[in-house]
């Protein structure tokens, strides 16, 4: 057996593949991919994760749609675009609406697949940016991912966030778009999450 391969069951795995399989969070990524694959286009889902799992989920979602070659819009509320994609190579079909980089004071690097907004407070502008980017995606299957509802609640009232979520779900409820809202599983936001459960078609709770 070559030195750069390992035996796993009846398969030969390269070192890189084995490292990827064993890396922290791989089991959660696999669970997430399985759950996402069961959500049909044209529906919406609320993805609820515990705080200790949160760090791996956004990138896992981005990687899932990149690997499936499904275009869409990723709304960066919790993590700046450049931090999110560091070490990753997202599909060119993914467009990003970044509402957090401006708050950090970092330079807004002009890129063709990124649109920067001034603040997470700009919910109307966010809605318009999402609509504009979605309209420019010509595909019979696409996605909209918001990372995250919990971070929006830090800057906006629960009523404003609920209205925003309901609006983008309603606008994108069609035969080709899968809408996913990410939220942390916290007691603090329980009332908002309970309301969002009523808006979406399915809720996914990762443990």
Topology diagram in text:
Layout: E1 5-8, E2 11-14, H1 15-22, H2 26-37, E3 44-49, H3 57-67, E4 72-76, H4 81-85, E5 94-98, H5 101-104, E6 114-116, H6 123-135, E7 142-147, H7 149-155, H8 158-171, E8 177-184, H9 190-199, E9 202-205
Parallel strand pairs: 3-8, 3-9, 4-5, 4-7, 5-6, 7-8
Antiparallel strand pairs: 1-2
Describe the structure.
This is KaiC-like domain-containing protein. It comes from Candidatus Iainarchaeum sp. The protein has 207 residues and is of the alpha/beta class. It has a single domain (27-205), classed as P-loop containing nucleotide triphosphate hydrolases (Rossmann fold), CATH 3.40.50. Helix content is 41%, strand content 22%. It has 9 helices and 9 strands. The protein has helices at 15-22, 26-37, 57-67, 81-85, 101-104, 123-135, 149-155, 158-171, 190-199; strands spanning 5-8, 11-14, 44-49, 72-76, 94-98, 114-116, 142-147, 177-184, 202-205. The strands form 2 sheets. It has a 7-stranded parallel sheet, sandwiched between helices. It has a two-stranded antiparallel ribbon with strand order 1-2. The termini are far apart. The model is unreliable at 1-24 (pLDDT under 50).
